[in-house]
Structure formats: structure tokens, C-alpha cells
Amino acid sequence: MVTLARPDKLNALGRAMVEELTTVVERLVASDGVRALVLVGEGRMFSAGADVEEFRDSFRAGDVDPAGVEAEARLGSRLADALQAAGLITIASVHGAAIGGAAALVAACDLRVMAVGSRIVVPELIMGFPLAWGGMERLVRDLGPSVVRDLVLTCRPLEADEALARGFACRVLPAAEALDGARELAELVATRPAHGTTVALRRIAALSDRTGAPDVDDDAASLAAASTDPDAMAATRAYLDSLTTDASSH
To answer: Its Gene Ontology molecular function terms (predicted)?
Structure first.
């Protein structure tokens, strides 16, 4: 089991955490002794997505480095690609919420177990940014373009029950049982012969990939371009200010 363990920050995906997760997942993918991995968040939710504290000041000041934004996008895409690597079955155990980049990681997993009341949220367009980390392609692959347009443009949540009905989640369980359910699922699928499992996952990916594999270059370049767009910068500053206002009111 791999745990997102920054509960005091709602498991926000900062650079150091993404780098560490990538190292761990890539090592597990290369290991002959590991067949399945459960990805889970510690505390109140799976993950709040990108760590806004890491870019708050530069975005407010309008001093954003597009090359740095592009590098961050490539780093997240590398983690998502590792989660989808054939040969290691990845299972996301989602409770609370998986937001933004965290939603992209959930979409990269082979199977998703969601707790009752949990949700997937893609709020990037509130700030004028596209969803990166290969998340757009994977969501379209598993949900279809019409549903993803709705989720991306309105930023409404994909609730667990809807995720199950649309085939995005394979199980929805009571919150107290979701992690155990994901572990039991991992134990089950890990008993399948390794070669056949790898071939099956690759064939399923090839057959279902109507949108094509995630384009890391386009993903990263689009995010970098948005970081220089005046409208996106204004929207981002307004969003960051709203977070500060919300925090001070509690």
C-alpha cells in the first residue's frame, strides 16, 4: 500500500511528495515480487490536489516561470504513467475527495474503490488552467467526452454513486469499509498469473484508448501557456484570494 501522508495539508501534492511517490511507484513496478498496489490518502480525504502554497506567491505577483510550470506538469505525468504501467495492478481507494491532480492519479489507476459520499473534482478551469498529468485523456477514455466536458466546464463533482453507474469506480463501499475492500481486491487480483495479467492489461488499454495515449509534451506546454495568459492569472489570483478568505473565516 502506498499512502499520501500529508494529512495536515489534505495530502496536497507538492513537488517533493510527487517526486517521492514517483520513485516508490517506479520501484514497485520494476519489482518482480509486487503484483498489486493500493493508493490511499491519510486523514480526511484522498488528496486536495496541487499544493497551492508552492505557487501562491509567484502567481499573485504575476512572476510565474512557464518553464517551471511545464517541468511540474511533466513530473506529475511521470507519476501517472507509472501508476498505469502494465504488470503492476494499481487500485485507488478514494475517500473524501480527489481533486485536480489527485483526480488524474485516480484516473491512472486500473481499478477504483470509492467510499460512499466521496467525489472526484476537476476545478482547474476556475483558475483558467487545463487538467494536466494525462488526466484529461484518461477521464475521456473511461467516462466519455460528453461527461468530461460537463465535469471540466462546470467543475461539478463526480459523486461516488455516479462514478459507479458510469463505470469509473468498480466498487462503492461504506467509508469504514472502503480501504479494506480495496485491499481485498488487491489480494484477489494479485493471485492471477503475472504474464497473463500483463498481456490482458495491455490489450484492454489498447482497445479502450480511443483518445490515444496522454501527450506529455502537449499537456505540459498547455499548462505553461496558461501560466502566461492574463485571464488565467487573474482567475488564479481570485481563486487564491478566496482560499485565504475562507481560511480566515474559520
So the answer is: catalytic activity
